[in-house]
Amino acid sequence: MPQSFRLENIGLINRNKKLSFKFNGKTYFGYEGDTLASALIANGVHLIGRSFKYHRPRGFFGAGVDEPYAIVQLYRNGETEPNIKATEQELFEGLEAKSVNCWPSVNFDVGAINNFLKIFLPAGFYYKTFMWPKSFWYKIYEPFIRKAAGLGVASIEHDKERYEHKYEYCDLLIAGSGPSGLASAYAAAKNGARVILAEDKSRFGGTLLTSEVNIGNKSGKEWADGIISELKEMPNVTVKNRSQVFGYYDHNMLVMSERISDHLPETKKFHPKQRLWYIRAKEVLISSGSIERPIVFGNNDTPGVMLSSAAKEYLKVYGVLVGKNPLIFTNNDSGYETAIEFKKNGIESVILDTRKNPQSEIVEEAKNLGIKIKFSYVVVAAQGYKKVKSADIAKISDDKEQLGVIENIKCDCICVSGFWTPTIHLASQSGNKTKFNEDIDAFVPGVSKQNEKTLGAANGVYTLDETLKSSLEIGHKLSKKITKSDNKISFPNVVEKKSTVHDKFWCVPLPKGKSYKRFLDFQNDVAVSDVEIALKEGYRSIEHVKRYTTLGMATDQGKTSNLNGLQLVSKIENKVVPNVGHTTFRPPYTPVSIGAIVGREVGKHSKPTRKSPMHLWHEKNNAIFVDAGVWLRPRYYKQGNENLFEASKREAKNVRTNVGVCDVTTLGKIDIKGPDAAELLNRVYTNAWLKLPVGKARYGVMLREDGIVMDDGTTTRISENHYHMTTTTAQAANVLSHLEYYLQLVWPELNVNVVSTTEQWAGAAIAGPKSRDLLQKLFPNNDVSKEGLPFMGFMEGDLFGVKARIFRISFSGELAYEVNVESDNGNFMWEKIMELGQEFKIQPYGTEALSTLRIEMGHVAGSELDGRTIPYDNSLEGLLSKKKDFIGKRSLTRAAFTAIDRQKVVGVVPLDKKTSIPEGSHLVKDSNAPLPNPKLGYISASCWSVEYDNPFSLAILKDGKNMIGEKLFVMSPLKNKVIPVEIVSSHYVDPKGERVRS
Amino acid sequence: MLHIKCPHCGMRSQNEFSYGGDASVKRPELGKEISDEEWNNFVYNRKSLRGKHWELWQHLSGCRQWIKVERDTATHEIFKTLKANEEIS
Hints:
A: alpha+beta, Ubiquitin-like (UB roll), seven-stranded mixed sheet, 23% helix, B: Folate-binding fold, four-stranded antiparallel sheet
């Protein structure tokens, strides 16, 4: 298919490289350097999608980031991505894209019936209509709206691409490489500052690529190219294209998204697709330029109606004609520049100027070129459904209220210019108080809050001469402040055409008897009439009008619609625009892919994975792992076709009858040293610590200041002033911070140091009646007899030449020990234990069996110490010292904590001794009581008791102390279970603790 | 993301720190008899100021020191940072 709208001798595309691509299944050709939009227009394709609400035909409106219409679903290298702007997507060989929001096709779209129903779909329609009947919402309204809504489909596949994050520091960050960005970057770089220059598009230069100017005897583009190549050579400068600075955050941190591979058919090996830059800049220069504003008229959303600057960009950058019979509708001189470019390329256009008699160099030039101009004329309405075919035009009175006789004029596109809106998003995000500039009818940055300055068109300065002058100056001034150097750049001679003032006219009145839709927001289909309704219904704040009508709430964030919306509200409300105010600008300036935001922190990389030194052994021995905080722990070791239940039962039973070994490396370990170490322990633990002898361990509980249990564990006195504290796996980091807090801030007089040694020690718990026999084999040189190493005793041992710490502590209810060796020796220790344990029928056990063993003996753990329970609730009140104060003690006297029917941990056994009890179930008195059935407690942990071979659970039960022997019901509405149970002591196995002391 | 000057390490990004609340709170002395109201004020009641606020941060992924930071809770401006043992002036 020929590119019938492509010109031969103009444009910056590479005509030597032809690219094929598909749109809606049809193959087209474009060139390297095209965007999807420019390539489609070159092929005469103007119908690209359907609008969000009314499903009206959609074409192209802009040529870049401001595009509200041309959103497509992109297919690249086997993956798909929605919400891609055709005006930003660079063409690559094999690109595929499809229209969105249309069914069955963009040419024949069923949803377009909304367009004929539009009288029924005014502002707030959804709010008003889908409220009743309530039951209809889930079944009818919501699925229907969901299907009807949306601009594309998110992929449900795993994203195979890689995204990276990068942190960077610089002296000056400059956002935008137009004239002001280039000049300021150049001045600052030449003065020695570290500069990052970011350009959103693939080409540097901004408006210099399309405007007819002369800088230092070079064309704008030549000058820009020269500066860029010089900057790229400088070691203190980073120049980035395809990079959008989209957010301005606190303390001068900006975030930029760099699209590294989106313009390629596939990402190169070892390259990321996109990179997110977190940039901390000393100074920020915002040179983001301005966006042309539309003029509002009837059917102004018809494909073929577009910004005049976009028409000029398609022509000069891509060599593409947006039409062969253009009509230019303008209220300022910019429209003339587009007409002049058309004329130079052999295309005759007609200019409708709302002004009566403008006088300027540019207007003169157009007249001299013989371009047809109609002054005091407006477009009343575009005609044509899927493409502009003609325009209804009329003369307008001097007060802009009365339309003359309507004439029809043939045209195939309407290029609109309603003057320019500075892009102040970044300045506003930084906290800059913007102000309204009457001369340009737009907001410009006011007083800076952070170290930011706005330059050039973004600051409302529209002449090149002034822009370059001020930008060079500011670049020099700011860099001088940082580098203390004083190298000045001489100011180049600038030639540009002078323009005259614009006309404040922005909205064409409706002719009598006509009801054309006049759109303000092209992406969300918000028309003048919608805003009128919102105001009539009493919405006053611009923020409310925005949310009710959805004006400016689409993915383009109202880049082309906000200001006209404000003009309308101010006109109806009879207020000036600054008093209406503008809605808040929030990052991101333009959509950023979720992949880029997440970076590499996906899947297993979302947090670090910690593995014990014995991990490989576990893997080799069929361990099934479970995430325990950041650790991977064996949950059970699978034998044959065993499932979790069978394996954990076998492992737990082997501990009760023979001996088992469990990897307890993950326990938090804190080394505590100093003459006041005992005093610190005495303050943070609830029980007494001053008299613990050397070589002994003690179990301790620590509270938060509010009396809630924070953690438990054992601490061992290694030597006079040296203690070894263990914490639960989950609380290790918090406990260390907790100790540091008290030592550094509350009791700095205590002479103690604490340091985490979690990763320095590998630990193995050896538990079961035969554990002592095994221990004696492991430590033939040590006396580990009942007398030599009594319960809660500690000794240093010699494990075949490896130094070890042996603790006689138990969390299983059995005779048990914990052996620690330096991490590097962990695997040696483990293999020795397994080797010498053979004769005692040793088996490794995982966290599931570990849980079973601790639940059976009623030892509370994380599921009971859940941040809601006090020592009494966990039957730990025996550990509360009456003689001394400790953290959280005062809180335990609160009325609720001393109530006589306070909750307490109990054991729960099903009456049938068969039915397993789901964790999290509720305990109630009467299973048939009317709802809400009063809840007496909840099941905190469940297991299958290997001692009694029936289910057993722990529960936190109201007045648990007096409930032993009661019959209650466990109810689990989630699992639809009602189980009659008996309340028993939480110490189900070995209630007197004889085995652990044996 | 805030940029916080650790008095021990220098300027660091917020993601190296964890927040620790109002720095003006003083823990009652151990063993001292105090009223319920006084204890409740210590444990629960905070002013939650808008504006200048002395607060605690811990340089968790750095030197692990608790520090005092004077920050404007509305604008995030940081005026001063102190070591744990330096008195708020």
